[in-house]
Amino acid sequence: MEAKPKRRIVTENGDTGEDLVLATLIGNGDDVGPLVRHAFEMGRPEPLVHQLKNVARKKEAEIEDLCKTHYEEFIVAVDELRGVLVDAEELKSDLASDNFRLQEVGSALLVKLEELLESYAVKKNVTEAIKMSKICVQALELCVKCNSFISEGQFYHALKTMDLIEKNYLKLIPLKVLKLVIERRIPVIKSYIEKKVCSQFNEWLVHIRSSAKNIGQTAIGLTASARQREEEMLERQRKAEEHNTGGLGELVYTLDVEDLEQDSVLQFDLTPLYRAYHIHTILGVPERFRDYYYENRLLQLKSDLQISYSQPFVESYQTFLAQIAGYFIVEDRVIRTAGDFLLADQVETMWETAIAKIVSVLENQFVRMDSPTHLLLVKDYVTLLGTTLRKYGYEVGPVLDALDKSRDKYHELLLEECQKQIVTAITEDTYQQMVIKKEADYENNVLSFNLQTSDIMPAFTYIAPFSSMVPDVCRIIRSYIKGSVDYLSYGVNTNFFNVLRKYLDKILIDVLNEVILETISNNSIGVSQAMQIAANISFLEKASDYFLRHAAQLCGIPSRSVERPQASLAAKIVLKTSRDAAYLALLNVINTKLDEFMKLTENVNWTTEEMPQGPHEYMNEVVIYLETVMSTAQQILPMDALYKVGVGALEHISNSIVSTFLSDSIKRFNGNAVSAINHDLRVIENFADERYHSSGLNEIYKEGSFRSYLVEARQLINLLSSSQPETFMNPVIRERNYNTLDYKKVATICEKFKDSADGIFGSLANRNTKLTAKKKSMDMLKKRLKEFN
């Protein structure tokens, strides 16, 4: 035993360091591949082989030592194992004996067990048969119920029953024949139900299309009623505000009530649609039904948008627009109540199609229309359509834009219509003061247009200062304003007062004023006509403020905003200019008549030898005529116009006297002729003073009396009658007494002045010293005027 350790020591002592490293790697189970690869790469595999052999010998020695160490223990174990084999043989013999006895006892029990198992199998088969029979009976009962539902038209219940059969019974039916029959019939029944539902839905499509017009008319009628109530309430509110009372609360309450009425009145049945969609959803084809609905409704819309040209548009527009309104009210109800059945994009596509067609139809029809009434009727209904559909969320801007584009066309037609009425009113006017016998007539013709000259109610019969043309024209203009407001209301622009103001100026300037100017330019009018026209224009000018206030009231603009002077119409200035033109026409007629009366070259003897005792006879006619003209003018013309008429006539007389002295037809005149003209002039001056004071003009025009407009003729007569006419050349005297006389005119007139001393019989008469001195002074004046010129 001691020799073995000596051998192991020797072996261990024979190991080199490299052998220990390699042994350690192999003992640890490490990979020695890198060492082998390295040895071959270095070209020295022999040392490595030698080392591996050393390691192998070392391991063999270890194994051998281990076997020698446990040899005795192994022998003992083998002996014990032999003992166990003997015991096992004995146990096997016992088990065989016990098994034989058990087989003898269990044979009878096995027979009983087989009988029991057979009974259990029979019972199981019977139970299974009963269960399968019940399943078949229940399935058949459901089939019968499904047939009953189909015959009664209760397709939803029929589908639910078939769904129950498919999910709960079809897989469990044991009879293949029955199962096959049911499987084949289910698709057939579903197809039948789908066709039946589609048929009912198609009937609903026809019905809802035929009902769309009534739906649209009802909805538009409700909108019209609401608009009328709102306008009435705004009118009451406006009047209440003018009296410092409030009415806003009532307005809000009524509008809220109207909002609640809309859906309660518009009742139409969508049940067939809901049912059809629900059944198609159960059938698993909702998309197909949605597409079917959309395509058919789109076809209906395109058909509704086809306008018939067999009858005038003004007779068919309500039906056309009401049908469209009803169509989209139905679509709105569908999209609000049917869940995700109809997409918003689909409705938007349909609406865009409709709006494009409506705009096209309106633009085409508006171009053809030649009546403002027809155009207004269509416009009103279109705005009602827009207001109605806007409540349902539809964008109606393009339709309102189309109406706005036709705004000028409407006003052109309205202007033409009113122009004819205005021309008729003016041409058929009698140019006589209007006689008003009743208070109602006074209110309708005077107060309603703010034409009264006093706030006090006059006594009747009342003679107005204007003719019947004035209230007639005012009514025409008022109707024009109403027509314009009716068209501009509920359009694109909510604040359209400035637009209305432009159209109001247009009719007053381009129509009324032009007709008046044309009448004025007519040479056939007389003094009374010209005077009445001038008076009428002044009242029309006054009525222009009423027109502006009335327009503002209809537009909902506060009256105070248009009562400022800078807010007045441009037409007021134009009418004022036309009034001045009427005054000029009146003066021209008066002056022409005065010229007919006077005819100084014919009525005056410019070389008479007799001293005149008074004015010429024609002067009485002139005064009577002026008296008539001034009296009439005082009745119907305002004070400023009366003053202009008086000033114009008297100034014309003065100019006529001076012009006659300058006329080439008057070659010479003497002092007696000057004296006669002096008498005539005094008559006119007396008339001027009397009329100036009696008419009350002296209180208004204190620095410009009528006599002052005769001053040129007066200064000329005074110069010719002066004993020292040469003083005219004295600047101080001339400025004081002859400041209106022109040098050249005086020189021309003085050259014609030949006093009686220079007459044919002057040498035979007694020469008066005074006349001789006057003659010398006149000669001196003539000489100095020649030098001056």
UniProtKB/TrEMBL annotation:
Gene3D superfamilies: Dsl1p vesicle tethering complex, Tip20p subunit, domain D, Exocyst complex subunit Sec15 C-terminal domain, N-terminal subdomain
Record key words, sorted: Coiled coil, Cytoplasm, Exocytosis, Transport
Transmembrane segments: none
Chief localisation class: cytoplasm
Keyword Transport on entry: yes
Record domain Exocyst complex subunit EXOC6/Sec15 C-terminal: where: 400-752
Subcellular location: Cytoplasm, Cytosol
GO biological process terms held by the UniProt record: acceptance of pollen; pollen germination; pollen tube growth; vesicle tethering involved in exocytosis
Function: Component of the exocyst complex involved in the docking of exocytic vesicles with fusion sites on the plasma membrane during regulated or polarized secretion. Involved in polarized cell growth and organ morphogenesis. During cytokinesis, involved in cell plate initiation, cell plate maturation and formation of new primary cell wall.
Name by which UniProt lists this protein: Exocyst complex component
